[in-house]
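User: Hi! I have a protein structure encoded as tokens and I'd like to know what sequence might fold into it. I'm fairly new to this, so please keep things simple.
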């Protein structure tokens, strides 16, 4: 049996990057106090974990067994029934997740009305920027009066498309790209605690740099290393998997968060 390289985001403490942690902290504290900051706009770079963060906030809000750190338990039916497949599920609080790229104006109106009829509901509108201005106008009143947790999520290069009046009404949660050091620290710690791949900090940092800080690419690299017998990540393997090329690093696609939670899509 090989080791599965998972970088699941299961707690608020899992978030990589000091600036991201500072952003998230007020939301965690508000959840702990039983009064979530809402409505909230999660704005993150592409691949920066906005959907994962939305799901963690929703889980933490809806879970009846929230821990003393404000994290969800991950084992109760409410926690397990996550993602769009389970819309309407939940024990104390029902939860919904909508992909705005798949909804037309009539769908939105219907869903806004439905979720607004109940107290204590959590709802995430993902890929919000795909909606036009005339559609997002419908959100103005609902977002403000919503009794529960209301989240919209979009990428950083798209948030300017949001109506200024709507933007004004939201608590902003802006994720940014962590530093090479921070991402390396994350992998060093995870490896020490869980994977035990024979490697060193220098090699891991090289991996982070060569992937342009791409979490997904790092994860795939580590998975190959974990499958070696015995599991090892050295410079030779790195040169094979991530050869240095003249291709510019895609530093704009940096990922702030692990992105492999096994939710059904
Ligand atoms: Zn739970």
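Assistant: Happy to help. Inverse folding works backwards from shape to sequence: for each of the 265 positions I chose a residue that suits the local structure. Here it is:
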């Amino acid at each position: 049996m090989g080791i599965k390289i998972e970088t699941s985001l299961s707690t608020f403490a899992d978030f990589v990057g000091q600036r991201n942690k500072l952003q998230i902290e007020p939301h965690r504290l508000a959840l702990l106090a039983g009064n979530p900051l809402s409505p909230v706009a999660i704005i993150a770079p592409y691949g920066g974990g906005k959907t994962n963060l939305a799901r963690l906030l929703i889980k933490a809000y809806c879970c009846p067994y929230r821990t003393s750190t404000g994290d969800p338990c991950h084992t109760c039916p409410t926690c397990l029934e996550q993602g769009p497949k389970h819309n309407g599920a939940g024990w104390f609080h029902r939860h919904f997740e909508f992909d705005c790229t798949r909804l037309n104006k009539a769908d939105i109106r219907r869903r806004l009305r439905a979720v607004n009829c109940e107290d204590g509901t959590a709802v995430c509108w993902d890929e919000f920027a795909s909606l036009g201005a005339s559609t997002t106008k419908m959100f103005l009143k609902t977002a403000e009066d919503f009794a529960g947790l209301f989240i919209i999520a979009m990428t950083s290069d798209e948030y300017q498309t949001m109506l200024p009046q709507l933007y004004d009404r939201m608590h902003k949660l802006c994720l940014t790209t962590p530093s090479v050091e921070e991402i390396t620290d994350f992998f060093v710690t995870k490896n020490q605690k869980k994977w035990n791949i024979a490697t060193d900090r220098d090699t891991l940092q090289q991996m982070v740099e060569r992937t342009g800080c791409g979490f997904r690419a790092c994860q795939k690299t580590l998975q190959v290393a974990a499958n070696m017998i015995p599991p090892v990540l050295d410079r030779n393997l790195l040169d094979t998997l991530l050869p240095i090329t003249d291709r510019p690093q895609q530093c704009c696609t940096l990922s702030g968060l692990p992105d492999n939670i096994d939710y059904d899509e």
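A useful reference point when you look it over: The pocket of zinc ion is lined by residues 63, 65, 72-73, 76, 78-79 (CB under 6 Å). Feel free to ask if any position seems puzzling.
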